[in-house]
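Final report, closing paragraph on structural work. Over the funding period we assembled a curated collection of sequence-structure pairs, and we close with a single example.
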Amino acid sequence: MSDLRLVFQKNGEKSVADVSPEEYKSIHVMQDDIDALSGKVPEVKHAASAASSSAPVAGNPFLDESASVEPSTDASAKAKSEKGSFLKRFFAKAKASRQETEIGVIRKKRLFIVIGAAVVVILAIIIISAIVFRGNPGTSASVPTVVPSVPTVPVTPPVREAPKQPYSTENPNYLQIDTESATATPDGIVSVLESTSEKVVAMAPSLPVEFLVRDVNNNPIAFSRFAHLLGLVIPDDFLSNLDETFSIYFVPDGTTMRRAVTVTVKDPEKLAVAMKNDEPTLPSAFGPLLYAKGIVVPVSSESRDGSFGSLPTRFAIVDQVSGASFDHVIFSGKFIMATSKASFQSVLGAAVRSQAGNQP
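Its predicted structure, as stored:
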């Protein structure tokens, strides 16, 4: 509290409690603190009131009427009130600014904490991923790969096609001869037959390979013309009963390639009669067509009876060393001749099956 002077005088002397306006203004009581905390504007203490309260009361016998108190004016009180209000507003603004600063600092601290926590979490994830990846280099630790199940389809191995053969064993092939060239001679035609036989041997067929003789224009060559070009010496009574259509076969017989020939017949009965007369010379007459080089065919050969099932046949031994023979028969409008028993049965058997299939 301010210095309060209480003056008491005795023995009838003047008794005065003299408080100046400045001292009164500096007096601070508990009510002022309560008003400041609650935001209430404090009551302005005017010097006039203080003066009046402390001024001597007229007629008061205990106070000295001659005591004088400095009067206060309204302008002075207003100035002091404005000064007090300015200070309170200043301190209130300072307090609010300090509170905002403290709140901003707290928010920044929280933001830094959140960012730091996020960075720590990210670093932890990266480290764990690196450890897992190093431990399992073949697998992905982040996203598992889902492979859709595909139904298993059995794979059939490709069928290896047999190499293409130069000649067919199912259908007739064409043997071309240029009848107008210088090669259309007995030696030239024999050479063509030999080379064709070698090609068929390279095929290693299991069935007879049939050829139809054609010229360069793909026209059939008649048997009589072909016999003339080849130089065959066939008795006229026998040749005259043979027709124009014929086929040459190359037939496998073990390791040997044999030949066989079928010629259509004009009149089977007349041909049978001619065959009885010309039979010993027939192997030699057809020799260049039927036999390979190196086989010597006798001018005359003795024929014997043979059979193919119930069908009577005839044959003659041509060469004992090579096993060549002259097997022949008139069957189903054709004169069939071959150079071994196996080749003869192969071609004759095909003719028998063909006739059986054509019968109603």
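The first helix runs from residue 21 to 25. Strands lie at 173-176, 209-214, 242-253, 256-265, 303-308, 311-319, 324-331, 334-338. We thank the funder for supporting this effort.
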